[in-house]
């Protein structure tokens, strides 16, 4: 229709359908295994009476309504940019503005943080394990320098971030194939780590003591004894619930990624459904294995002490390097196994980073398409089939965040970042599904079964998300160790949480006023229609 041509920048998004279900599968696994399991378990010292086994199963169950909500929304609205489309079309464009600000702030910042984790828990310990197993001092020292030398560390993080940005702007088919290859390596690597840890406590104790003796470090039993103050054999239901919530927030919610590229899948509804279901099932199985095997091999007291205090300053392979280090020390006498542990898990954030750089570029494109942002941001490079200008802006933001976080000018809790996503993306998307189940979705014919599913999943997901945010922040008021580990500096982190909706609302009204004055267009008209493919 002529009205829609005047409202939208063009009749097509410019994005191309190049991906299949295996690529959706890869995106689901992006942040799930194995490093995210380690970086969530490190909160365990603040929850000494949590039941790990019960907690991890509860986490997978309470995440299901959110998973099903995204699955249904992506099926019914197969457009790239994810929640932004759901929220603006079903709820209100003001809330879409808030989601846009939250996404464009949080995901480039997350990309910067992930590039640093990639060095600390991926590349550096992989070099150390390879160097130690093959008696290559140059490789071992390179890995060690990356961990202890700030210049090496910063330079490596910047290089990794820029390299992953180049991956993010490739044609979707090539970027997705890269992600699938790395995700497959992570799955195999995660299974290998589970197998190694499943040898039990005696095998881990012997391997750790052998490594520690080389550097005059502490024994397993001494760290175990010190860790007993961070462990209680009597299970506390509240702490188990908190363990489950943290596990859900940092492990089981990262299946939303395929929805941000829904307009770039062949047979989008079917591909996304198959990929998400397969990814969730496999990721959950590996997470269960990692958590239970960690408890079985290292014991909770030893893990809690070492994750909080390290396992001795004289040992160059750091406890904080995660599963490559934990499993790697058990196979140093077997170079072949050490090689596979290091290589298969080397690119642990090589799936996540391209996504955290590509996702906000799709949001910027969609906001530009709706005229909330300058039209140039909707430009899609005809050769790369990528929103190149938007991607360049995302890279600039990520580089700025890389610098300010490395220099300590901005210290943001990762759980607070997840809380931002929960409040201003996931929760708003869940409410969109709930409302869509009542009022329907613009331009979409829904059966009574479709509406019922959206209503049920959206309602349950909203309850889960509100509960998770409330308890994750409330518990900081009753547990000081938890507060220091999870929240960090409350002034900065709470200012971010409160500031994002304010900025989003102000920006929406400025953009609407500008478009009315400059072009004579009420941008709210665009939000009454699903944008073209």
Automatic annotation (TrEMBL):
GO terms for molecular function: transmembrane transporter activity. Pfam families: AA_permease_2. It is found in: Cell membrane. It is a multi-pass membrane protein. The keyword Lipid biosynthesis does not apply. InterPro entries: AA/rel_permease1 (IPR002293), APC_superfamily (IPR050367). This is APC family permease. It comes from Acidianus sulfidivorans JP7. The lineage of its organism: Archaea, Thermoproteota, Thermoprotei, Sulfolobales, Sulfolobaceae.
């Amino acid at each position: 229709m002529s009205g829609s041509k005047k409202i939208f920048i063009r009749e097509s998004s410019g994005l191309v359908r190049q991906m299949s279900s295996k690529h959706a599968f890869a995106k689901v696994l992006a942040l799930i295994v194995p490093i995210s399991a380690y970086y969530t378990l490190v909160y365990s010292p603040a929850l000494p009476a949590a039941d790990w086994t019960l907690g991890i199963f509860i986490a997978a169950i309470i995440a299901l309504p959110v998973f099903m909500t995204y699955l249904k929304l992506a099926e019914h609205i197969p457009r790239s940019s994810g929640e932004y489309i759901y929220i603006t079309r079903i709820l209100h464009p003001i809330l879409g503005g808030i989601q846009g600000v939250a996404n464009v702030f949080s995901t480039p910042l997350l990309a910067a943080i992930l590039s640093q984790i990639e060095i600390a828990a991926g590349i550096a310990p992989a070099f150390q394990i390879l160097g130690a197993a093959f008696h290559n001092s140059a490789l071992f020292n390179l890995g060690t320098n990356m961990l202890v030398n700030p210049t090496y560390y910063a330079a490596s993080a910047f290089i990794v971030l820029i390299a992953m940005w180049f991956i993010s702007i490739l044609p979707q088919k090539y970027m997705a194939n890269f992600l699938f290859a790395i995700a497959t390596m992570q799955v195999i690597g995660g299974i290998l780590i589970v197998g190694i840890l499943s040898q039990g406590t005696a095998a881990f104790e012997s391997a750790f003591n052998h490594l520690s003796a080389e550097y005059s470090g502490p024994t397993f039993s001494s760290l175990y004894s010190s860790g007993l103050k961070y462990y209680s054999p009597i299970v506390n239901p509240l702490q188990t619930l908190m363990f489950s919530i943290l596990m859900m927030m940092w492990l089981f919610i990262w299946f939303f990624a395929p929805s941000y590229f829904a307009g770039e899948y062949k047979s989008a509804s079917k591909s996304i459904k198959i990929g998400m279901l397969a990814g969730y099932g496999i990721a959950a199985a590996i997470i269960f294995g990692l958590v239970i095997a960690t408890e079985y091999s290292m014991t909770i007291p030893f893990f809690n002490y070492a994750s909080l205090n390290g396992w001795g300053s004289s040992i160059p392979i750091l406890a904080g390097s995660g599963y490559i280090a934990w499993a790697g020390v058990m196979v140093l006498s077997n170079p072949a196994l050490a090689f596979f542990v290091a290589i298969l898990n080397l690119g642990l954030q090589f799936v996540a980073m391209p996504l955290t750089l590509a996702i906000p570029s799709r949001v910027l494109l969609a906001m530009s398409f709706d005229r909330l942002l300058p039209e140039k941001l909707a430009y899609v490079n005809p050769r790369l089939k990528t929103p190149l200008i938007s991607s360049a802006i995302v890279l600039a933001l990520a580089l700025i965040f890389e610098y300010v976080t490395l220099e300590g000018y901005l210290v943001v809790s990762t759980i607070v970042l997840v809380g931002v996503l929960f409040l201003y993306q996931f929760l708003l998307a869940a409410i969109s599904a709930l409302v869509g189940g009542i009022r329907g979705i613009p331009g979409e014919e829904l059966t009574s079964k479709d509406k019922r599913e959206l209503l049920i999943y959206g309602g349950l997901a909203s309850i889960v998300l509100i509960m998770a945010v409330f308890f994750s922040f409330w518990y900081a008021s009753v547990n000081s160790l938890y507060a220091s580990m999870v929240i960090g500096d409350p002034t900065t982190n709470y200012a971010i949480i409160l500031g994002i909706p304010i900025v989003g609302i102000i920006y929406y009204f400025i953009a609407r006023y500008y478009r009315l004055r400059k072009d004579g267009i009420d941008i709210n008209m665009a939000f009454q229609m699903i944008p073209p493919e």
